[in-house]
Here is the input.
Amino acid sequence: MTGVSTQTVSRVLNKRPDVSPQTRRLVEAAIEEHGFRPSAVARSLVQRRSQMIGVIAAGMKYFGVAQTVNGIAEACEASGYSVILKELGSFDVPDIVPVVEFLLAHRVEGIIFAPPQMGANIRHVQDQLPAARPPVVFLKADPTPEFSTIGIDNRSAAMRATEHLLALGRTRIAHLAGPLEWREARDRRDGWLAALSDAGLEPGPMVAGDWGSPSGVTAFEEILAADPRIDGLFVGSDQMALGALQVANGRGIRIPDQLAIVGFDGLPEAAQFTPSLTTIRQPLAEMGRLAVRELLMALKADLGVDTVHTVELPTELIVGDSAPMPPERARATDPDAESMAPVVTGGQRPG
Amino acid sequence: MTGVSTQTVSRVLNKRPDVSPQTRRLVEAAIEEHGFRPSAVARSLVQRRSQMIGVIAAGMKYFGVAQTVNGIAEACEASGYSVILKELGSFDVPDIVPVVEFLLAHRVEGIIFAPPQMGANIRHVQDQLPAARPPVVFLKADPTPEFSTIGIDNRSAAMRATEHLLALGRTRIAHLAGPLEWREARDRRDGWLAALSDAGLEPGPMVAGDWGSPSGVTAFEEILAADPRIDGLFVGSDQMALGALQVANGRGIRIPDQLAIVGFDGLPEAAQFTPSLTTIRQPLAEMGRLAVRELLMALKADLGVDTVHTVELPTELIVGDSAPMPPERARATDPDAESMAPVVTGGQRPG
DNA sequence: ATGAAAGCGCTAACAC
DNA sequence: GTGTTAGCGCTTTCAT
Here is the structure.
C-alpha cells in the first residue's frame, strides 16, 4: 500500500523466491524507512501456530526448578520456539486451571509442567485438563498412561546412595529427609529403607527438613540427639547436607571417619563444601531439554501415533570426601552399572 | 453462529453487563459443550495489546539471574501480565538484535534485560534499539539518560565489606575478584581499593576467579602463595568464598581469628557455610519486581512524561562468623547507616 | 438487549 | 512476478 504494492511485502518478508530483486529492494527500503515491523501476532492468528510453548513453573527460587527452566528455554531457542513462562505460587488445583486456560487461549503448541515436586494433587490437574489440548509433559510426576512424564527414579538413586554408605562398612545409617508431603522425599526415604532392609540392618533415626540448609542444621541436631552413635547419614538434599556439615564441623565430628554423609541433587557447589560432599546428581537441565524434545516429537507425529512416553533419566553418584570410594571397587554386577556409574570429582583436600 | 447468536458471545466472554441472563446461560452452555476457547491471539491483534512483557536473560544457570527472573515472573503474574522468556547464550550484539526484533514482532508491551552482568557491549545494544519501541529496563547496567536501569552500587557495597574487615582491625586485606571483564567485578575491586586507600593501607594481593566455587579454590591458593600473612579477605561472590573456605579449613587456617572473610551476593546457604559467611546481600528478586513496576508505570504514563529512572537498590551486610561484628558498634555517622545497616544472622556455632 | 458491518495485520489460493 | 480475494477470530461502532 505504501510505496508500491500490497502483500508482495509478505513474500519479501518470508524470503520467498518469486520476487524480482528490484521489487525486493524497493520493499526493503520502504520497510527500513518506516521502521515497519511485521506482526507475529497476526501471523500466529492466520497460521494457527504460535511457535510458543507454555511452561508452568513453581518455586523457581529453588535451584532445581531454575535449572530445569533454563534447560527448557535453551532447547526451545534451539528449535525456533519461545516460551511463555507462568510462575505459580503453588500447584494447588484452583490455581492451575486458569493458567492452563490462559496458555490454551494463547494457542501454545505444548505445555510443560515444571514444579519442584509433584504430589498427589497432580492427578487432579491431569483430570481437569481439557480433552482438546496440545501435548503436555509433566516433569517429576508419577508415570501415567495418558501423559508423558520425565523424571528420575528417586527410590533407586536413594538406594544407590545408601549402598555407598553400606559399602563403606557403615551400619547405623540415619536419614535426613525432605518434607514427607513431597513424593520425592518419600521415594528417597523408601530407597534408604529398602537398601537397609536388603542389607539386613535396622534403619537409624529419621528426621524431615524442608529442603533448605537451615532446616538441615536443626534436623541433624535432632538426629544426633536421637542417636549420637550413627556412622552414616543419607540426606535428601545437598542444601540440607550443608547444614548437617556445619553442625558436624562445629561439634568436631570427623567426616568421613566418624560419620559418612551422602547428599542428593548434585549442586555444583557440593564439591567445595567442607569436606566435599558425596551426592547423587540429577540431570535437571537435561530434563528440561528432553521435555521440549518430547513436545516437538508429539507435534510432528500428531497423527494418532503413540506419543506418550515415560522417561526416567539416570542419576550419577558423585564421590566426594564426605563419603569416599570404598576400598573394594563398585560391584561389577550392578545392573545399573552404566547409568549409575560413580563419578569421582577432584575431592579437594588442600594442605 | 452455533446455537443462537454471533458475537453476543463476545459480550458474554467479557462479562459485559448488557446481556440478558437467559442468553448468557445459553451461550455459556454452548461454550462448555463445544469446549470452545477464545483466542487470545485474535484478541491481541484487534486490541493491540499483548499483555506480555519480554524478558531477555542470559546465564539463568547463575543463581542471581534465576532469582531475578523469578522476581520478574512473580510481579508480572500479580499485574495480569505474562512473560515471554528468551534465554540467550551470550549478550554479544549480533545475538541480541534478532531477539529484540522477535519480541517487538510479538508486540510485547515492555522489555527487560536480565543478564548476569552488563559490560560495555550494552552500549551497542542500546544504540541498536529501534526508536519506536515499548519501554525497556536494563538490569545491572550503567546508568544512561535514555533508559531506565536498576542495579546496586557495587563499589559502595564493596567498600562497606572492606570497611567491615578494617573495623575488625585487619590490615593485610586481599581480594578474590570476579572476572575483571565484568563491570561488576571491577566495581567491587575498586570499592576494595578505595576503602583501603581511605584507611591509608596498601592493598593485599588480588587474584580473579570466574565466579564459580572451584575457581575460588585455586584463586585463594594463589593469594596465599603471594602473601601467606594476610588477615582479611574480600571475595567477589559467595560461591568463590565457599571455595576459599574449603581451602582455609583444609589448611587449618583459623577463621575468623587468623583470617576474616567477607563474601558478596547473599546466598541463602551462606549462613550454613563452615563457618557461616559474612556477606553483602543483593536484592535480586526485588530488582526483577522493580523492573516490572518501572515498565508498568512507563506504560501508564505514555504521554511524553519522563519515565526514565535510574535506581540503585540498597544492599545489606549480613554478618556471619567468618567476619563477626567488631567490638565497637557500627559507626553512627555512616551516611548509609539505614540502607546499609548490618543484619546479624543466627551465626550458628554448634557444640 | 442483540445483530450487522468493518477491520486488526497477516497469509493462502487463485488469478493475471 | 505480482495483484486480488478471502478469511484467521476476535472487538469495535452503529443499527435495530
